[in-house]
Amino acid sequence: MRTIHLSYPDHLHVDHLESSVCAIGFFDGIHKGHQHVIQTAKDVAQKSNKKLAVMTFNPHPLSVISNGKKAVSYLTTLTQKEAILNDLGVDLLYVVDFNHELARLSAESFIDTFIIQLDITHLVCGFDFTYGHKGKGNVSTLPEHANERFSLTVVEKYSEDNEKVSSSWIRQKLQAGEMQQVKHLLTRPLMTTGKVVHGYKRGRLIGYPTANIAIEKNQALPRTGVYYVTVKIDGKEIHGMANLGYNPTFQDDDLNQFIKLEVHLLDFDGHLYDQTLTVSWHEFVRPEYKFDHVDQLVERIKQDEQEIRQIFS
Q1: Domain count, the chain
Q2: In degrees, to the nearest 5, what angle opens at C-alpha 37 toward C-alphas 33 and 156?
Q3: What is the pLDDT of residues 259-304, one digit of tens each?
Q4: Nearest to 237 by CA among 260, 192, 268
Q5: Domain ranges, residue 241
Q6: Summary mean pLDDT of the chain
Q7: Are strands 120-126 and 20-24 parallel, antiparallel or unpaired?
Q8: In the listed set 106, 126, 160, which residue is the last one of a domain according to the structure?
Q9: What's the average model confidence in pLDDT over 168-180?
């Protein structure tokens, strides 16, 4: 897959441009609904013997339009999005830098600049796709702005259990700890990436050493608690139990106000400091508790380990 970064108004030229069928959208999470849009574009591309392209935006338009006042938590980082789209058989990925200049671009000019100039011969979008200044462009205005220069497919709402499958709905599932449902809607577990950093080494003292992971900024996270997770190390998937939370048992921690991700890897012995790990979330085990004594915490962790081993055995 070829990834091409574009920025309006200065960086729009593409060398060796090939005509394509393009699915357009933000595609956070690349969930079942998004995959339906992309598969529709793939079918058209194969029938017309064209390249399959996807156009996405970075960062999220809301974070730019609000001048950073509204934080956006991403179900997929851009790097994860690239890997998933590559696996889906995408040939060209256009990553458009969403900046204030682009936000002011009229709907008609957006089509001229990003669809016509990129030789997109067929555009595929979801029923609720908007474009241009203040989102004034939509699926009703697309035929007029296309002006017969490209053809168009609008994909209808994709629903499950009478609910539109959306990134916001999946975030609600995350906050409820419904990891199996999240996995079902994404068609893969939620993945969180971060670098292993030095912690207080309390886990080692109680017989459960943990990898303390500094979570990359703006990643969507599940509710706090204990989880069954996996981590891929040197190509091998390692089972583990993760605690996401504030370590309430240790009130002397000056950093208690910051959420922390600690992962104890089962049947693993090795050094992970400064490595970047990706944690895959599989199942919520229990909420995070404050224990009166460390011994109580250790006993509960032992129970957690037994429960998690039963899940994957």
Answers
A1: 2
A2: 75
A3: 999 999 999 988 899 999 999 999 999 999 988 888 899 999 999 9
A4: 268
A5: 167-312
A6: 94
A7: parallel
A8: 160
A9: 97
